[in-house]
Amino acid sequence: MILAEWAPLLAVLGISPAMAVAFARLRVWRVLTLPAVALPLWLGGYYVWHLPPVYEAALRHPSSLLHLEHAWYFGTGLLMWWPLVQDIPRRATSGFRAAYAFAAFVLAAPLGLMLALLPSAAYGFYAEATPRIWGLSPLADQQLAGITMLAEQGIVLSVVFAYWFRRFLVEEGAS
User: Fold this and answer.
1) Residue 91 burial by CB count (10 A; 0-12/13-18/19+): exposed, middle or buried?
2) What domain count does the chain have?
3) What is the pTM of this model?
């Protein structure tokens, strides 16, 4: 969650207007930061990297696939946050940004919810792991991870949604 949401958000917030202009000169950056491209890449990565065979392969190859997974999370996180934070290469309206943040949560939430509600552990790697941290069973560990993922995304994306929705209401003279 830190690599896919917090770190990319903070990195995008830290980009100066001059740096954003430099990025926007790259055609590939302009395409990848289109909301219709960025959000599916971010969501697709979340879901694909959590498929049990893919997830376990990354854990079994920590010097290669796990690094690729983390780079994917960070890179697509940058793309996902860009339209919410930056005005270059295109300035999205506050209403659009609120809807985008809402869509990001609604579309990402099922993964955390699924991990929290599955009746058995999805990842054999953790089922075989010893010692058990805090004495949690593999299922309880997975459920806690799903709840944590869902809560973190809910908090972060709700705050971003509320910010942009409030700005939208002010701009529309409704508040």
Assistant:
1) exposed
2) 1
3) 0.91
| Class of residue 16 by CB neighbours under 10 A (exposed 0-12, middle 13-18, buried 19+) | exposed
- Rounded Cα distance between 92 and 81, Å, is 12
- pLDDT tens for each residue of the chain, 175 residues long: 788 889 999 999 999 999 999 999 999 999 999 999 999 999 999 999 999 999 999 999 999 999 999 999 999 999 999 999 999 999 999 999 999 999 999 999 999 999 999 999 998 887 777 777 788 888 999 999 999 999 999 999 999 999 999 999 999 987 6
Question: Which structural domain, as residue segments, surrounds residue 163?
Answer: 2-171
**Residues 73, 41: Cα–Cα separation, whole Å:** 10
